[in-house]
User: Which sequence fits this backbone?
């Protein structure tokens, strides 16, 4: 019986049972090379293995597919109709096993990044300056969710990344430390009672402005130290944001503790003096946080790499003292 007369009894059942990626690749390679030996060489198969594969394809499709000639083989008309859909199917299948990439120089994407008001002041100017050159079509949407909203947003992908002081959000979260932060005092340079150094006994005399952003436990810990029996600092004003402290102390005789990187940024612009605390305040780590689901997402990996390159401990320390 001629090969072209072979017809499977149950075509759909036979195809679903026997068709696999290897056979599709074999068909596409033989069609392209018109030579069984060359096709085997490209696929790492022996000539008998190629022949067995072609036989399986002939049986499945009920067509000879390739006819031998003196120099190689030529496809049948039916094989000509198969080559385009087979090539498309292979391309789709290959794309599922090839890891995608993110090209920041040409791709457009909006990243939602959770951060505090200090984070916006510290991170966004340098980040956006970098993105203007390296990723001109990337948009950053800075958000300030509650702790519950942050957890759900990272898990769902509504928030790509969180940067700042963050407590443990669960086992499914990844964290990467950027730098360790500590508190310093700021006061105006012309303050009548301070001349480059702050003594513990002065904390009872000098009026304080204290910032207590919602959800920032380390800020609460700072006030706990100041209100303790060994210090008993005078608190004249409480505000929600650390960003308020600099302008307030610049125009009053109040003093206030702020994170050191923020203090270094505002001191020069506001004619402030930075002072080492005469008491021990708790420090904290500034970290990147993202969900396990997006650990290998190319865009997320790229943005994390940018933030690490711009804001690791050595970079921040160098800039703070520049």
Assistant:
């Amino acid at each position: 019986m001629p090969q072209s007369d072979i017809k499977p009894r149950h075509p759909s059942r036979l195809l679903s049972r026997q068709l696999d990626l290897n056979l599709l690749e074999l068909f596409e390679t033989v069609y392209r090379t018109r030579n069984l030996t060359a096709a085997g060489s490209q696929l790492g198969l022996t000539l008998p293995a190629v022949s067995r594969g072609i036989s399986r394809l002939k049986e499945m499709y009920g067509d000879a597919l390739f006819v031998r000639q003196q120099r190689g083989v030529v496809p049948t008309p039916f094989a000509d109709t198969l080559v385009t859909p087979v090539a498309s199917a292979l391309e789709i299948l290959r794309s599922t096993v090839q890891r995608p990439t993110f090209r920041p120089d040409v791709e457009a994407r909006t990243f939602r990044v959770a951060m505090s008001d200090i984070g916006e002041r510290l991170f966004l100017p340098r980040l956006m300056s970098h993105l203007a050159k390296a990723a001109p079509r990337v948009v950053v949407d800075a958000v300030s969710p509650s702790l519950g909203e942050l957890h759900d947003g990272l898990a769902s992908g509504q928030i790509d990344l969180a940067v700042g002081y963050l407590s443990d959000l669960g086992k499914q979260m990844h964290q990467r430390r950027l730098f360790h932060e500590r508190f310093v005092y700021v006061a105006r340079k012309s303050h009548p009672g301070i001349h480059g150094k702050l003594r513990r006994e002065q904390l009872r005399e000098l009026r304080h402005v204290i910032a207590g952003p919602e959800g920032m436990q380390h800020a609460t810990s700072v006030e706990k130290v100041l209100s303790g029996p060994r210090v008993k600092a005078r608190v004249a004003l409480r505000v929600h944001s650390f960003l308020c402290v600099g302008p307030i102390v610049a125009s009053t005789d109040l003093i206030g503790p702020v994170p050191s990187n923020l203090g270094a940024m505002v001191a020069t612009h506001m004619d402030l003096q930075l002072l080492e605390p005469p008491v021990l305040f708790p420090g904290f780590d500034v970290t990147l946080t993202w969900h396990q689901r997006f650990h290998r997402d190319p865009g997320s990996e790229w943005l994390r790499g940018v933030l690490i390159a711009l804001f690791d401990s050595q970079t921040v320390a160098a800039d703070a003292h520049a």
User: Anything to note?
Assistant: The CA atoms of residues 7 and 62 lie 4 Å apart. The domain at 183-282 is CATH 3.40.190.10 (D-Maltodextrin-Binding Protein; domain 2). The longest helix spans residues 77-97.
